[in-house]
Amino acid sequence: MTTYCALAYLQIIPWGLLYEHRWGCISAANIIGLVASVVFFVRGDTKKKYKNKMTKGNKDTPPGTEGFGIGALKILDDFYLGLEDNPHWGVFDGKMFLYLIGGTVLNLNVLSFVAHQYEVMGGGMMIDYSSILYLFLFSFFVVEYLFHEHVHLYTWDFVGEKLGAKLIWGCLVFFPMFYPVGAWTIADHPIRHHHHLNDQHYLMHALAIITFFTGWILSRGANLQKYYFKIDPRSSFLGIQPRSIGGRILCSGYWGLSRHINYLGDLLMSVGLALAADYSDIIAWLYSIYYVVLFVPRERADDKRCHAKYGKDWEQYRRMVPARIVPYVY
Questions:
Q1: Which terminus of the chain has fewer CB atoms gathered within 10 Å of its CB, N or C?
Q2: How confident is the model at residue 312 (pLDDT cuts 50, 70, 90)?
Q3: Of the candidates 83, 73, 93, which has an alpha carbon nearest to the alpha carbon of residue 44?
Q4: At a CB cut-off of 8 Å and minimum separation 6, what does 185 contact?
């Protein structure tokens, strides 16, 4: 980030470089993501693992049905979900490095898109306040996420999931290229979005800020509370004394509102970003729509996994906290 800004400030590269070459960047990111996924798929003596699994899986496979059968599907599943746990090289964390790359490129993309708009509008005092707000909110999102790196090391992405194409391609392509999709709505139509601020625009900007930071309070608060509970189940958080079921399931504070209140927080932050962009354009809402499509089935799957792990304790938690994501609604 610092290098990019320094080169742009010295006029070695244009501020809008990533915007001008956005399609090339997307293509390159896809190639890098695919190559990296293949490398980690092969890594760790996977050939031996596949040979053992394929022999066992195809032993009873009827003749003529091999094709795209059990073995092939298993390979695709392993390629997508991964075979290797989070790799570490000394103190170097593989998954966190991927998130660091994704977050940095994401922020650079937003900066470049906003800078392109500013240049097209002629510079000077021709500032689109919506784009400045969008850049501020996303920059806060990325910096705050990386600042709480230690908290994310205890989340399911790091603890439960293996390193496969899902996470590698997601961090190198989907995260930095799709999440800031709202920037496309303001970079491509700068003149349409330049306006004299009136009460309606002030209201929408205020609504975007309130919605975003309400989501941040829910998401960050919930994740921090669970983090401190995992570190010390007796420690309080924001003056809230922890209550748990069986000493394992946190059911007070944020986690007494819904069983996945952090999902609601993430969704509200995405809505705030859409409101800061061109909220009249469906493209600005694709990020929020993606979260709905992602979180609803993920919550169902997580509920089944937790029930299998905690048994009757999870059934008690369901009764105590009936809301899945949105308190009193869903």
A1: C
A2: very high
A3: 83
A4: 277, 278, 281, 283, 284
Distances in Å between the Cα of 236 and the Cα atoms of 214, 230, 240, 261, 313 are 22, 12, 5, 19, 22
What's the token pair of residue 225?
């509370």
For residue 84, what is the DSSP state? B
- Say which DSSP state 277 is in: S
Helix (H, G, I), strand (E, B) or coil at 87: coil
237 DSSP β-pair partners: 240
Distance (Å, whole) CA 127 – CA 119:
10
> pLDDT confidence of 190, banded at 50, 70, 90?
low
Please give the Cα distance from 310 to 258 (Å, whole number).
17
Q: How does pLDDT run across 11-25, given as a tens digit for each residue? A: 899 889 999 999 999
Q: What is the pLDDT of residues 221-252, one digit of tens each?
A: 999 999 999 888 888 888 888 999 999 999 99
Contact 286, 294 (CB under 8 A): no
- Two tokens at 234? 């007796």
Tell me the torsion sign for CA atoms 304, 248, 218, 319: positive
The full DSSP string for 202-261 is HHHHHHHHHHHHHHHHHHHHHHHHHHHHHH-TT--BTTBPP-EETTTEE-SGGGGT-TTH
Closest alpha carbon to 4 in 121, 117, 143, 106: 106
- pLDDT band of residue 70 (cuts 50, 70, 90) is low
pTM of the shown model: 0.86
Tell which phi-psi region holds residue 25, choosing left (phi > 0), alpha (psi between -120 and 50) or beta.
Answer: alpha
Q: How many CB atoms lie within 10 A of CB 71?
A: 18
Using an 8 Å Cβ cutoff, are 15 and 116 in contact?
Answer: yes
Among 96, 194, 92, 179, which Cα is nearest to 139's?
179
CA 283, 289, 291: angle at the middle one, nearest 5?
A: 130
pLDDT tens digits along 248-265: 999 999 999 999 999 999
| Phi, psi values for residue 245, rounded to 5° | -110, 115
